[in-house]
């Protein structure tokens, strides 16, 4: 069995830096970034559509645990995404990583290119999953790094001298994200009636990939997209916004709902792995990133995966005569390779989750 660190994650064709494009006077947005909005879902105007907010302190408090656990269940079932407050992640760890993210994208093009993606790898600075020269591009620069396990790190892509102490900040941040992910997974297991210790342990020994995003301002924000609509393949995904500029949107009831950043919160969304484990009780939501015309927006996304021995299948405790298994059973390797093989193909319109169904 290959370890998660050695799996082939595909590659991406080099493309121009969006931040450099945006820094020039633009008479028009380059054609490859323009999107046809026909047939797209509308952005929600209904203020009652607000992403659930959960409090980790209440989940840990025996007095409020059951009530907050029910809120967690409802959030994962009805939204697939929520904002988490009251968590135990060190505030300085998050702020430090936010500063280093902004400092990295503010470096000169020449310095950032030292960490550019190489042929056959998604890791490094660039864009993800660009497979053809005529493919539509996203209005976003990113640097993608495998952070945990430590032996999986490719330090040639980790900025060393500039920004100062970037590596130390990311090391601390990624371990904090692993700790909170393990706790969240445990509570998700409880909400489903599963063994919390077993599932948490799988994620304690899992892999954690970190993607830092820069969304430069755009003169025509309604005609581009920061990150295209997608569902994450992780177990869960954790996002922190570097500021108070909204950009993340989730698809709910046929409308795109903006997630307004809450200070010191973590956005948690269900990934496809947990949709399979829950046998479809919880859904991995479609989400995307919008851009604005005035300011850079930065975010840090941590993709949380179980260890390589974890079998991706519906939990046996959720299968009975009235609830048959909706998804196939796959090894971790089979699951990851199946997804990344699909990224090498033109979009066939079939969601990845549908290819996993029985």
From TrEMBL:
Gene3D superfamilies: B-lactam Antibiotic, Isopenicillin N Synthase, Chain (2.60.120.330). It holds the Pfam family DIOX_N. Residues 206-306 form the Fe2OG dioxygenase domain. PROSITE patterns: FE2OG_OXY. It comes from the Eukaryota. InterPro entries: DIOX_N, IPNS-like_FE2OG_OXY, IPNS-like_sf, Oxoglu/Fe-dep_dioxygenase_dom, Plant_2OG-oxidoreductases. GO terms for molecular function: metal ion binding; oxidoreductase activity, acting on paired donors, with incorporation or reduction of molecular oxygen. Keywords: Iron, Metal-binding, Oxidoreductase. Belongs to the iron/ascorbate-dependent oxidoreductase family. This is Fe2OG dioxygenase domain-containing protein. It comes from Mikania micrantha.
